[in-house]
Amino acid sequence: MRARRFLSSMRDQAGAVDETFGALRVGTDLVPVAHVAESVAEFGDRYVGRVYTAHEVSCCQGTPSVVAAGLAARFAAKEATIKVLRPVDHRPDWRSIEVRRDPAGSCVLHLSDEAARLAEVQGISNWAVSLTHEAGMAAAVVVAVCDGDSAGSGGGRSDSEKER
Amino acid sequence: MEAQIRQILSEQARLPVDIGDLDDDADLYQAGMTSHASVSVMLALEDAFDIEFPESMLRKGTFESVSAITAALTTLVGAPAE
């Protein structure tokens, strides 16, 4: 009963946030760095070129393990973004979701082509991304603010209510 | 073609189950294939069949089962030999 009241309270608060800022969407993903390292070793430039932009590659320089960790974090960000975009079937080109790093080291998302179109259709204009890698795993969290009036068919108040 | 596809899946899909235990129509994502693994599957298929998947075929459904992959490859390389 107490848990039910707590959940109800949280939903009311989420509703207040929606009215003020629009609905929030969250995506997250976890990628083993070794998997990326093996793909780089086996497929080389074909793998890198099909998934990552030139800017992303330029941000991931150093030893093979450093490169793989950086690429794995960026792949996690791309997949986390797709979870936010919720494409029905056609997956946007991986390179249309780009992690850009400014000189101060902060990362931002830049969408183009199909990814940008999906975001526009669903009224998503504000994005935030955070990357991390540690102990052989890389992860990313993506948060987006979605205009409540054009949230699209997949729109919902709580992402936690949907398993993706 | 199907045997070659299954061989590539066994090497690249990182499934927690034996590919031989899955039916042709079994959902590979449900079986544990990640998005990243699907990229490796795609590249290995391109190498094996000397093709390139066009952007229009880069749908989740293209790689979701042995049957779906067979259908996609049939479109790209022609009908499989009997």
Can you summarize the main beta sheet of chain A?
3 strands, antiparallel
As a whole number of angstroms, the C-alpha radius of gyration of chain B is: 11 Å
Number of strands of chain B: 0
- Helical segment count of chain B: 3
Estimate what percentage of residues of chain B fall within beta strands: under 5%
CATH architecture label of chain B: Orthogonal Bundle
Name of the CATH homologous superfamily of chain A: 4'-phosphopantetheinyl transferase domain
Please tell me the CATH architecture of chain A by its name. Alpha-Beta Complex
First-residue to last-residue Cα separation of chain A: 28 Å
Q: Indicate the low-confidence ranges of chain A by residue numbers.
A: 149-164
List descriptors:
heterodimer; A: 164 residues; alpha+beta; Ribosomal Protein L22, Chain A; 3-stranded antiparallel sheet; two-stranded antiparallel ribbon; 5 helices; 5 strands; 46% helix; globular; disordered C terminus; B: 82 residues; mainly alpha; Non-ribosomal Peptide Synthetase Peptidyl Carrier Protein, Chain A; 3 helices; 0% strand
